[in-house]
Amino acid sequence: MFQPIPFTPKHPVLQQHISYYYFLKTDTSDFETRYYAFPHTHSVLNIHQKANFEIKDYYTRVYADPSTQYAACVQGIREYPLLAHLQGQLDKVTILFKPLGINHFISQPFGALYTQPSEVFGAWDNEPEYHAFLKEFYDTDDTGIRANLLESFLMSRYAPFAEYDVLAKSLELLSNFELDLSVETISNQLGLNVRTFNRLLKKHLGVSPVTYKKVARFRHSLQNKIFETGVKRMTDLAYQSNYYDQAYFNKIYRSLTGSNPQRFFNQVNSLADDRLIFQFMKK
Q: Taking the model in full, what pTM does it have?
C-alpha cells in the first residue's frame, strides 16, 4: 500500500473547482500494487514522469518507463470500478477536479474530448508553458514548491466557460437527495427541455443527468458511512441518501462496486485523510 500526500488548493479560484491534489512517489523498481477505484463525481487527472500506460476498459496499468519524459491520463465519471495497476519507480501528481471543474482549464468541453473510462490526456501537450512547468515541477522534491508550481500553472490555464452557471445549478439540484427532484423537474426549473439538458451535461461532463445522480447518491452514502460515526446499519445509510428501499440500495452498490454494501465497507481502505477510498488487491 502507498501513502499519498494530499493538498487542498490555496488559491480561492482553484478551491472552487478542485477538491484536492496529491503527490505520490515510489522508491523502488520492484514496487507493485493493484487496487479498485470506485465511481466518483470527480474528474481525475494523473501526470507522471518517466512512466507509460496500458489502458483497457476499466483497467489502467501505469509502469515506469525511462524512455518517456512525461505522460498524463484522465478519468471522468464512470459507472463501474476501475482497476489501477501501478508498477515500478513512479513519481506523479493527481488532481481531483470537482464536477465540471476541469472544463475551466482545457479549451474544449471535457465530455466532447474524453469518452472512455480512462484515456491519455493530451490537452496541454502543444503548449510550451506546460512542458516548462513539468520540468520545474519534477526537478524538485519539495512538496511545498511543487504545490506552488502546480497552482501557478493551473491559474495560467484558467478560463471560465459560458454554460458553467446553469450546469452548476443543475448539479446542485441533482445532488439534493432530500428534494430528490426528477430530471424533468430540474430541466423546467433551469428553463431547458430535457433533451437540451442531457446534451449539455454530456458535452461538459461526459454523462447524462440520470447517471450523474446515480453516482452522486452513491458518493453521498459513502461519505455518510466514512464520516458519520453514528451510522451503524446499512438500512440507516440507505435512508440517509434517500434510496427508496434496501433492495435497490444493495442493487446500486453491486453495480457500482461489485459487492453488496456490507462486504464493500469491510473490504475498502481509506487514504489521504479519508479522501481516497480504494480496495487493494491481495498479491
A: 0.94
